[in-house]
Amino acid sequence: MRQIVQVFDRGDSPVVPAQLPPVPRSFTSRQRELDRLARWRSESPVVVLHGVGGVGKTTLAVRFLQGLAGEFPDGTLFADLRAFSVDGPVSADDALEWLLTALGVRPDSMPVELAARTGLYRSLVAGKSLAVLIDNALSAAQVRPLLPGGSSIAVVTSRQRLAGLAMDGARFVEVDPMDLPASVELLAKVVDDDRTSAEPVAAQELARLCGGLPIAISVVGARLSSRPRRSLAREAATLREQRIAALTVDGEPSVQTLFDLSYRDLPPAAARLYRLCAVHPVGDFDLPAAAACAGLPLPDTENLLDVLLDANLLREVDDRTFGYHDLVRVHARDQLSATEHAAALRRVVEWYLDVLVSADLALHPLRRRTGPRYERPLALFHNDIEALAWLTAHRVTVRATFAEAVERGWDDLVWQYCEAYWGFFLHSRHYQAAIDMFRAGVLAAHRLADPLAEARLRLQLGYAHAKIGDQHAAVEQNTQAMQLAEAAGDQRILATAHSRLGRSARDSGRLTEAIAHYSRARDMQYAIGSARDVALCRRRIGQVLSQLGRHDEAVSELQAAASAFESLGDRTQHSRALMFLGLAALDSADPASATAPLTTALTLMRELGSTYFSAEILTALGDLAARTRDLSSARQAYTDAVSLYDQLSDPKAALVRAKLTSLQ
């Protein structure tokens, strides 16, 4: 639609342009952005409002400028540069012709050349106080000739960032989608009846489905206004099913059209990245994940991400972490072919598996693995601290990519995810999530007819069941793992199965049986030559000996295990052996001797950042303080342990709370 400027003949009186469109009566919220605009207004004559299409940049700009009407006695100018119109963007030549006409220049006096028009424009506005709204700009070059200078101001809106205008002293305000309360308020204003108050839950769902985009909310509100008998719940159901396609009203541009136009103007490589990153299983992703989606090198991906950021089709969550607006992500996915989608998803699922493998190796470098991904691992982490920090931050993403692998039936990836997740599980202890995950891994390995993989995952599943007190399920899984290992002749898995059955016997109070299982596992691991696994067995034997009251034997086993883990460089198991050494000392004639090993163990675990193991050691320190009647220290240690267990939703929190209560 062409912009039409009508100039009325007022004789010799100068024309005072007043071209700003009206602010919709439904304008809502935006106080934060208005405050920022007011601040920048005092610092710069040029302000750029940028954000995704439909987020309300133009309405915000008009609202801001109308609030300043008294400061610009020479009028207001408006130029829609139509950057994303189906007809294409307006040239600076044409835009200047509109502005000059509004300032009273007659057609027969209009300069032809761009430079001449720019010079005349600046001459006319010099000494005046004008507000100029430059709407829907495509580039800094398109905008620059329209900047008035002097005591006038220009507000520019664009889906691009227009960073080049920083050279002209511009300030930038990013316009974000509206929050849920403001979205509901806007919907109520647009619908203008009592339906939103009568159906508050449906109103919130509609607002949420519109993703905070005023244009989407306005489209939905317009549809409802034209259908006074239509319930909000029915409209929400329609929107749930169709999302973008439903956001349209006859005769008006749809949200689909807005995104289509932005997408159409992307370079082919950027358009491809826009599509492919939409397969990422969770909303936010970093640079390496984007590169994995597209199968591109990091430098190329980074350049293309900058293109998408400039187009406001992506938002920067923090330094080099990105995300789509909800509706933009739906649009991007709609552009994908089924083949593109499957290939990109497979790449990103494999990428996260490779990172998980790398993190697992950093956490437990000596543990035996069988997955083929361990044969050519990526070296992504310098130490176990870095690895655990990444796993903690990306836990939701790892689970989501695993779920995609399960849904797609990629059994070869599913079981390997489970094996690689083991190291993190030992620190995070999200039991139910791990049980669900390991169960899926067992089924995947079984379908692949890989008995060793199935046996290892059954051992993991059995361990998780044992930790939540389901000894029946634990024994069942460990016994099946033992049978698979015996059939395959794998002594390592067989030894581990004996060790896990020893744990079940210990937890059930059958301590002599537990020592028999652990001793058999130790002898098998010694024959195999696995020093780490021998040390694990000795640590477990020491725990049971301590329970039996055989203190000197327990200390001997635990000290040997701690020394072995320290020499092997296994920080986690060294710390755990020290913890159990301290626990053994608690029941000895000299409980104060527990202080040194427990304190060292806590230091190691805090350096690593392990929430679960730190909570275990704090509980032991609380027991030590309670035993020596240092109630203040006991209370603090128990409180800290409860806080950590609560973070993990671990049932041990209740046990430690009981200890706290007993101190009273």
Automatic annotation (TrEMBL):
SUPFAM superfamilies: P-loop containing nucleoside triphosphate hydrolases, TPR-like
SMART domains named in the record: TPR
ORC1/DEAH AAA+ ATPase domain mapped to chain residues: 44-137
Official protein name in the record: Tetratricopeptide repeat protein
